[in-house]
Structure formats: structure tokens, C-alpha cells
Amino acid sequence: MTQIAPRPTRRTRAKQGDQPKQSIEDRLLAATERLLEQGHRFAALSVEQLTDEAGIARGTFYLHFRDKGELVARLMSQVTEEIIASSGTWMSDADAADHQELKQALVGMVATFKKHQAILAAVNDTAPYDRNVASLYKTMVDRICAQSRVSLGIIQRKGLSRPGATDDVAEVLSWMIVMYCARFVGERNGAELERLAESLGYISASTAFADPR
User: What is the number of other CB atoms lying within 10 angstroms of the CB of residue 140?
Assistant: First the structure.
């Protein structure tokens, strides 16, 4: 069974002597997620709370962002890029991808959703009531859908896809993965999280790729 290893914490990296300097965005993303994990409501978080938690001056915040809305947009973009990067070959070089690598892509994506579970769950919960957050959420999923369509198109041209695996299928799979992960990864750890990743990988690979001959 594939192990989903958590990203080393800052404390672990400090013990290992590896302390890369965090960018302002990284510090604010970490601060946002810590506050959400403490039970703060996403919509109610203030700039003052965020800067205090991140250990930066309020003025520094406004050197980088116009307001909290721009911060959230930037953070969602960063999380989206991490999700895509964690899919490995499937989204970066689908010409070299196969059935097994698509399964592995889901292991990476689930691990990234787990890492950012607090902010993704908060955005998912807030989107129905906040147009700006809903737009950011849709932008994230649209980006993942677009990459999935490109990858599926490549394996179609190579004659490796299952008949009927259209762009619509890529979109449905992408939405399914995002919504399921946003809802359930926060509740799962260890073997349960591994089974979730394996299940999503099986569904995705079985849907996209034709059966091996």
C-alpha cells in the first residue's frame, strides 16, 4: 500500500538543520490554516489576526496585498499550483503517463488536500454564501479541470484512453476529486487516508485508460 507521508513540520526541519526562509505568502497561508484549525471562521478572520499569527507587521501586509480578498485569491492560486504539482507526471508530462502513474497522481493530490485541509474545507463551506469565495473556488477547480482535459486528450491521441473518456469526463472526475477531498480528507488519517487515495486513483485510472491488452 502506498504511504502518504506528511510534509515535515517547521519543528522537524529545525531539528534537521533545514530552515528555509518562508515568503510572506507562505507565512500568511500557514497562519490562515492555523487559525482555521483553531476554530476561527474563514469569513470573520481579520487582517490583524492574520498578521499577528504570521508574525508580520500590518504595514507589511499592505505592501503585498490590497486587502484580505487579494490575499485569499493569492493563497488559493498557490494551493492550486501545489495540487497540480503533486499530481506528478499525469499533469506535467502526460505523454509519459500510464495507468499506474494516474493512480499515483491521486496519492499526491490527496496528500496535498490533507496538508491544506483547513483552508480548502473553509472555502468549500463559505462558497455558497460568498460570491468572491465561490469565484475563487471555481477558478481553482477550472484550473484542475483544464489540466485534466489536456492530459486526457494526450492519452486519447495515443490510443490509450477508454472509449467515451471525453472532456466532460475529465471535468466530472476533477470536480468529484476536489469536492470529495474537501469534504472527507480532514476526517481521515493513516490507513483510511491511504484507502481514500487508492479508491480515487482506481476510479480515475479505470475511467481514463482502456483496459491493458
Answer: 20
**Alpha carbon distance, N-terminus to C-terminus of the chain:** 25
Tens digit of each residue's pLDDT (9 = 90 or more) over 26-35: 898 889 889 9
Burial of residue 100 (number of CB atoms within 10 Å: 0-12, 13-18, 19+)? exposed
Coil/strand/helix, residue 51? helix
Reported as a single tens digit per residue, the pLDDT across 195-210 is: 999 999 999 999 999 8
Angle 47-51-53 (CA atoms, 0-180°, nearest 5)?
Answer: 120
Cell numbers representing residue 81 in the block = 499550483
What mean pLDDT, rounded, does the chain reach? 85
- Where do runs of H (alpha helix) occur along 21-162? 24-37, 47-54, 58-64, 68-86, 89-92, 99-115, 117-126, 131-157
**Residue 96: CB atoms within 10 Å:** 10
Closest CA to 85 of 111, 55, 49, 121: 111
pTM across the whole model? 0.80
| The three cell numbers locating residue 195 | 484507502
